[in-house]
Amino acid sequence: MQTDIDPRNLIGRKAFDLNGAKIGTIDEVYLDDATGTPEWAAIRTGLFSRDAFVPLEPSELTGDGTLRIPFERALIKDAPDFGVGRHLSPEQELQLYHHYGLDIAPPQPPPPDQDFGKIAGQENA
């Protein structure tokens, strides 16, 4: 999904599954703690039902302003329920990633500093 979208603009938009079936309306958007980018959306699945958490990546915001989620409605409705309005813990996020079968890459160490120990202005012989 585009990462330059203001998460407040997602609230109230309709969400559909991969087959075009309506899931519900976006209730809340959760940001990544490290990057501040929108990562999860809580979708109200009905008038008296709970919110279902869906990943915003690899979801797509369409030209008509709806969110297309590349998973089937049944899988989305069976997502773990953590309640809305609270911070998602790393453990809860991991449960959601596993539920949707998404791989999360372990944090990559920074590349080695190739210039470490060299003095500016000196070239290798």
Brief overview:
The protein is α+β, with helices and mostly antiparallel strands and 125 residues long.
Explain this structure:
It is built from two helices and six strands; from the N terminus they run E-E-E-E-E-E-H-H. Helix content is 12%, strand content 23%. The model has no long low-confidence stretch (mean pLDDT 84). Strands 4-3-2-1-6-5 form a six-stranded mixed β-sheet. It has helices spanning 73-77, 90-99; strands at 14-16, 22-31, 38-44, 51-55, 60-61, 67-68.
Rg estimate, integer Å: 19 Å
CA-based shape = elongated
Largest sheet: 6 strands, mixed
- What is the CA–CA distance across the termini? 48 Å
Q: List the uncertain runs.
A: none
Task: Please identify the structural class as seen in this structure.
Answer: alpha+beta
Q: How many beta-strand segments?
A: 6
Q: Can you count the helices?
A: 2
Strand content: 15-25%
Secondary-structure element order, N to C: EEEEEEHH
Mean pLDDT: 84
Helix content: 10-25%
Strand line-up in the sheet with most strands = 4-3-2-1-6-5
